[in-house]
Hints:
By secondary structure, the chain is mainly α. The protein is built from three helices and six strands. It has two domains: 33 residues; 100 residues, no CATH class. Strands 1-2 form a two-stranded antiparallel ribbon.
Amino acid sequence: MTATLHKLRCRGCGASVAVEEGLRFIDCAYCGSRLEMVGANREAAELREENEALKLREELRLLDAAWEGYVRQVSVKGRNGELHPPGTVDTGMVLFLCVALAMMAGKVLPRSTLLWILVVAVFGTWILWLFVSAASERQHAFNSARGVYDSQRRVLLRKLGWPESVG
């Protein structure tokens, strides 16, 4: 068995003391002071690892909290108060707007004209297109943000050595 020797100074007299690895106590050959050997390097490494794990867990907690805040901010509240991801079109609202537009057009134009039907059809289609395209853009942005969040979360979980299903 080979022993690794470390040199250090005695705290009592300052003399150089050779220390064999694995010993817990050593006596100084010059002044007789008893020195306790503590695995400082090992403890420091363990503390660094624990500190890194704490930082990663805090980063994960902040990432999850930021995502939850974003979801609450961009989600659509349903009639019962439940949150839905963005991108869903409230067909009832679109139908209401089309009917309101038809009623306004009916006030301005005589109902019997072909022009009235054309105006209602064109503007109704245009409003529907606006709602659907805006909802599609919101959904695309949400899905992109979700992809970034999922990717960052997977990296943190991998660094922590946790399964990706945690959380």
